[in-house]
Design a protein that fits this description.
Elements lengths: L1 H39 L6 E11 L5 E14 L2 E10 L7 E6 L6 E6 L4 E4 L27 E10 L5 E9 L5 E9 L5 E8 L4 E8 L2 E3 L3 E3 L2 E6 L5 E11 L10 H4 L4
Length: 264
C-alpha cells in the first residue's frame, strides 16, 4: 500500500515537472530564434564606415567629448573586423581599438596607445574593463555573436517609449564581466532597444538604451545614439553615430595589429 502510494506520488511529481521542462525548453528555443533572426538582419553589409562622438558624463554632471572614425568589414563565416580611431581632442588623438570578431569563439581585441608607442592586447579577463574611461566595457564594443551566449525568452512587453518588444535573457558562455544581459528587441524589426547588464554578483550594473535608428540601402538598420548609464557610479556615456557609408572598400588586410602602429 505504501509502495503503491509512493509510486503514484513519484509519478505525479514527474508529470508535474514535464510542463515546466517543456516551457523552459520552448523559452530557450524562442530566445535562440529571436537572437538568430536579429543577428541575420544585421549581416551581409560587406563593409561600412561611420563617424561618431563619445560624450562622458560624470556623476556630478560634468561632460567631456571625444570624436572618432570607425570602419567595419565582414571577413566571411560570420567573422568581421572593426577599427575605431579617435581623432579629437589631441590628448587621445590616434588612440585606436581593433576588434576581430569570430563566430563560435571569443573575439580578439588590441588597443593602440600612440603616446606609449605600444599595442596592447586585451586579455579575456581585461575585456570587462572600461574602454578609455567610458561606461562601455571592451566587451561592449564587440559584435555580440549569438554563439557566445545562451538565449532565453522572458516575455513580450513594452520597451523604451512603449515600443512592443521581445525580452530575451542572454548569458555568456565564456569569461565576461556580466552574469546576464537582458535585451529588448522591438518586435517589428528585431532591433535592440535596451540592454540591462547584471554584474557577476547579479546586481543591476548598467542600462544601455539605443535610439535614432535609420534604414540604409533599404535593408540595414543602424542606430544614431547609444546611452549607457552606470547605476552604481552615477556616470554615463553617450555614443552618437552619423555619416554611415556602405561599400567603401575597407580592406580587412589592413585591420591588423601590425597596422595599428601606422595610424597617423
Amino acid at each position: 500500500m505504501h509502495l503503491t502510494r509512493r509510486v503514484l506520488l513519484t509519478g505525479a511529481a514527474a508529470a508535474a515537472l514535464v510542463p515546466s521542462a517543456v516551457a523552459a525548453q520552448s523559452a530557450r528555443e524562442k530566445g535562440e530564434r529571436i537572437a538568430r533572426e536579429a543577428a541575420a538582419r544585421t549581416e551581409g553589409y560587406g563593409d561600412l564606415s561611420a563617424t561618431g562622438e563619445m560624450i562622458l558624463k560624470s556623476a556630478g554632471g560634468q561632460t567631456s567629448t571625444r570624436r572618432f572614425d570607425v570602419k567595419w568589414v565582414e571577413t566571411g563565416g560570420g567573422a568581421s573586423r572593426s577599427l575605431l580611431v579617435f581623432n579629437w581632442p589631441g590628448d587621445i588623438r590616434n588612440t585606436a581599438l581593433l576588434t576581430h570578431s569570430y563566430e563560435g569563439r571569443s573575439d580578439d581585441q588590441w588597443l593602440w596607445l600612440p603616446s606609449l608607442n605600444k599595442v596592447r592586447r586585451i586579455s579575456s579577463s581585461g575585456r570587462s574593463g572600461s574602454f578609455v574611461g567610458s561606461e562601455f566595457a571592451y566587451e561592449d564594443m564587440t559584435d555580440q555573436e549569438v554563439e557566445e551566449f545562451t538565449h532565453t525568452w522572458v516575455q513580450d512587453g513594452a520597451g523604451p517609449g512603449g515600443i512592443a518588444c521581445h525580452i530575451v535573457d542572454r548569458r555568456p558562455k565564456s569569461a565576461s564581466g556580466y552574469s546576464l544581459q537582458r535585451v529588448w528587441f522591438d518586435r517589428q524589426h528585431l532591433r535592440v532597444q535596451q540592454v540591462q547588464y547584471f554584474d557577476r554578483r547579479g546586481a543591476h550594473l548598467k542600462t544601455l538604451r539605443v535610439s535614432g535608428y535609420r534604414l540604409y540601402q533599404g535593408r540595414f538598420w543602424r542606430a544614431g545614439r547609444m546611452d549607457m548609464q552606470n547605476h552604481l557610479t552615477g556616470k554615463a556615456t553617450t555614443l552618437t553615430w552619423s555619416n554611415y557609408r556602405f561599400d567603401t572598400g575597407v580592406n580587412p588586410n589592413v585591420l591588423t595589429p601590425n597596422a595599428l602602429k601606422r595610424i597617423r
